[in-house]
Design a protein that fits this description.
Elements: E1 2-6, H1 10-19, E2 24-28, H2 32-41, E3 57-60, H3 64-74, E4 82-85, H4 91-100, E5 106-112, E6 134-138, H5 146-156, E7 162-164, H6 167-190, H7 197-200, H8 203-209, H9 216-225, H10 227-249, H11 253-271
Parallel strand pairs: 1-2, 1-3, 3-4, 4-5, 6-7
Antiparallel strand pairs: 5-6
Helix pairs in contact: 3-4, 6-10
Length: 273
């Protein structure tokens, strides 16, 4: 299979490193230094965009708005390929890509539930995908064999659980499992007013705030693109915090024990699957 990856940042380059061991991989990045490094490292064969015409699969590894702009500018290179993207928000972007893509191609979206706090080609590593969750989101332009191809992609990169869902389901889930958790980590760090926090932290604080070392440009875009669903999840979390605050303030010992017990039992079910 011939694959062309658009964007060789953390995720795009990590894909290239993993896929190039079993497939012919081409790639392009707007930063020439990045493209030169990818060529030198041997993870792409060429950065010539004209080679998109010869590829079976095109992977869009840019920010959602940039994915759309790329397709608008280079759709003349598309004729028969399967198009996919790995963006963190889906509904609005999929609608726009369905409008812009030529009818001769197919399009299936996906989302690798993996990453790092740091961004850029330098930090790329295909090992971040090992046994990570992998979400597949069919679109109106998805054809019968596309899901099989994307599952093969996930298997090649050593992903674990593969789940199919709609774009709406994806954005609702991601608002909770990914975007809200980043909001929580950032808010916890920014709420700190203590002089000796660094000297008094243990695993709890470090684990909760690891993702606060954030790519501020990318995550701002993701928050705003999915803001309605994210705000809904933020409201639910605020309500739960208010409940916990009231239980502590009123010395409701048994109620607190029940809350903590329910949380532990629910979280333990994650580890049993």
């Amino acid at each position: 299979m011939k694959v062309f990856i658009i964007g060789l940042g953390l995720m795009g380059a990590s894909y290239a490193k993993g896929l190039s061991k079993k497939m012919t991989v081409f790639g392009y990045d707007s930063n020439k230094e990045v493209t030169d490094m990818a060529m030198k490292d041997g993870i792409i064969k060429s950065n010539n965009l004209e080679l998109i015409k010869e590829c079976d699969l095109v992977i869009l590894a840019l920010y959602p708005k940039d994915n759309i702009e790329f397709i608008i500018e280079y759709k003349h290179l598309l004729n028969h390929q399967i198009i996919t993207d790995l963006s963190g928000t889906k509904e609005w972007m999929i609608r726009r890509l369905e409008e812009e893509l030529p009818s001769t191609v197919s399009y299936i979206s996906h989302h690798p539930m993996a990453g790092k706090e740091k961004s850029g080609y330098t930090y790329s590593d295909e090992k971040i995908f090992n046994q990570a969750n992998f979400l597949i989101i069919p679109t109106k332009l998805t054809k019968d064999n596309d899901i099989t191809i994307i599952k093969k992609l996930a298997d090649t990169l050593n992903f674990g659980r593969i789940t199919l869902m709609t774009a709406k389901e994806h954005d609702e889930l991601i608002a909770f499992t990914s975007q809200l958790t980043h909001i929580l980590a950032v808010s916890l760090v920014n709420s700190d007013t203590h002089k000796h926090t660094k000297d008094a932290t243990g695993d709890s604080y470090r684990d909760l705030t690891r993702i606060a070392k954030i790519n501020e440009v990318m995550w701002t875009e993701l928050f705003l693109e999915n803001k309605e669903k994210l705000i809904t999840e933020m409201d639910k979390l605020i309500d739960e915090l208010q409940v916990m605050k009231q239980l502590v303030a009123e010395n409701k010992k048994e109620a607190l024990i029940n809350k903590l017990k329910a949380s532990r039992e629910k979280r333990e079910t994650f580890d049993n699957n």
